[in-house]
Amino acid sequence: MKNIVLIGSGNVATHLGEALVGAGVVVTQVWSRTVDNAQLLAGKIGSEAVSDLALIRDDADAYIFSLVDDALGQVLELFPHKDKVLIHTAGSLSLDVLREYSAHCGVMYPLQTFSKSKSMSLSDVRILIEASDVGLLDRVRVLASRLSSRVSDASSEQRKYLHVAAVFACNFTNHLYSLAEDVLVQNGLDFNLVRPLILETAQKALLHSPHDVQTGPAVRGDQKIVDSHLELLNGDADLQKLYRDLSARIMGEPRF
Amino acid sequence: MKNIVLIGSGNVATHLGEALVGAGVVVTQVWSRTVDNAQLLAGKIGSEAVSDLALIRDDADAYIFSLVDDALGQVLELFPHKDKVLIHTAGSLSLDVLREYSAHCGVMYPLQTFSKSKSMSLSDVRILIEASDVGLLDRVRVLASRLSSRVSDASSEQRKYLHVAAVFACNFTNHLYSLAEDVLVQNGLDFNLVRPLILETAQKALLHSPHDVQTGPAVRGDQKIVDSHLELLNGDADLQKLYRDLSARIMGEPRF
């Protein structure tokens, strides 16, 4: 597959488009509902920007859909070229969402968190692939392998659980970082103070099962500290509840 | 302060004891309620192990209490040497917990997460210090500066908020890693798949405000995915509830 049309211009589409072009694949067009977004990415990777689905070329080897999952169905509904090779990049969506539009469909899910504000090489990112038939799976594998050295097969079912796990390990974790920042800033303290802690906690989880390296008042059963923290969070009932729930979970965890 | 008695043999005491000795400070004794634990640490740092408080020497320049916070009060109650320099290492405890036992007291709180299973140099760890008077604060600063290049003053009040923030950023985060591991293992998948995600999420928070780099279905308002994840977690009502609460928090966050 040497000639791709990229549908989408968000975080994943941006990283993917750059990686495709970096690997020598031609991205002929970038489609986005918002023409400015299409142009921004298309400009970076030497593609044509389109915001009208009717203008999408019919000669691409594959159409890669990298959209907010909610938008994918709407775009597919209006997509003009049926029975072409359609590929999506979504962790949580089954291959089946593409089947009603084409018999030739696949998935390339890069298992990483992307932000436009932080550049990242796809070359070390695991890409999980799936396809409607063995022949296409091989072609998807060849394409994915041009982007990354870590390509694995995963079924739609497996991808779903992986995505849930990723939400806990990444999205929810980042939200906890935000809460820590809020607590500090609201009390005139600098978020930098806990940044080394954030890195160390992550690095520990790279080497150990997180169950084995849990630290803090809850796992020590230090109810006095837990209570004093709850007291401190008195002004924010929601945050207090989250602290209580998470502490209770940790206290109730079976010990290893 | 060249001659220290270390009260405690847990994660923090172990790292502190090793760092003190590495910095040329003599740790004459290590006390722990459990003689085996006292011996384990004392053996590593060339100290005498004691498990009887009555056997603690009275000639130390300072007594550093590095205990589970719940235990500190009990041990202080029985501690034989009043009015010596008493120092604790706890983030959440006020300096006041020491005042009723000595007029000369201080705090040295290393702001990091310690596990016995992972070695770590204290030299880059921020140590927050406090003391009952300016003279002792200077002496505590000199001691802490032998261990780390990052020593800052922090009041008991500031330390409390810092500790709450650290619980969110580190302890609760690690618990989320555990939950991710559970979801994966229960579905025959390898925790290694999300480890790169964990590291990237942490690294992003070192460079950005976590509010600005939040990713995932909740922040995208992708209710379909959130619902499908909740459905997937159907077998574990508690976990489902945590997923729902955290997603609601992220969805309700003011946008920046």
What characteristics describe this protein?
9 helices; 47% helix; alpha/beta; homodimer; 256 residues; eight-stranded mixed sheet
Shape of chain A: elongated
Largest interface: A-B, 91 and 91 residues
**What order do the helices and strands of chain A follow?**
EHEHEEHEHEEHEHHHH
Strand order of the largest sheet of chain A: 3-2-1-4-5-6-7-8
Report on this model:
- Chain A is an alpha/beta fold and 256 residues long.
- Chain A has nine helices and eight strands.
- Chain A has helices at 11-22, 35-45, 69-78, 96-99, 134-147, 156-186, 195-207, 223-232, 237-252, and strands at residues 3-7, 26-31, 48-50, 62-65, 86-88, 105-110, 127-131, 151-153.
- In chain A, strands 3-2-1-4-5-6-7-8 form an eight-stranded mixed β-sheet, covered by helices on one side.
- Chain A is elongated, with a radius of gyration of 22 Å.
- The interface between A and B is large, with 91 and 91 residues.
Provide a concise account of the structure shown.
The structure is a homodimer of 256-residue chains. Chain A is α/β, with parallel strands linked by helices and 256 residues long.
List the helices and strands and how they pair.
Two copies of one chain form a homodimer.
Chain A: E1 3-7, H1 11-22, E2 26-31, H2 35-45, E3 48-50, E4 62-65, H3 69-78, E5 86-88, H4 96-99, E6 105-110, E7 127-131, H5 134-147, E8 151-153, H6 156-186, H7 195-207, H8 223-232, H9 237-252
Parallel strand pairs in A: 1-2, 1-4, 2-3, 4-5, 5-6, 7-8
Antiparallel strand pairs in A: 6-7
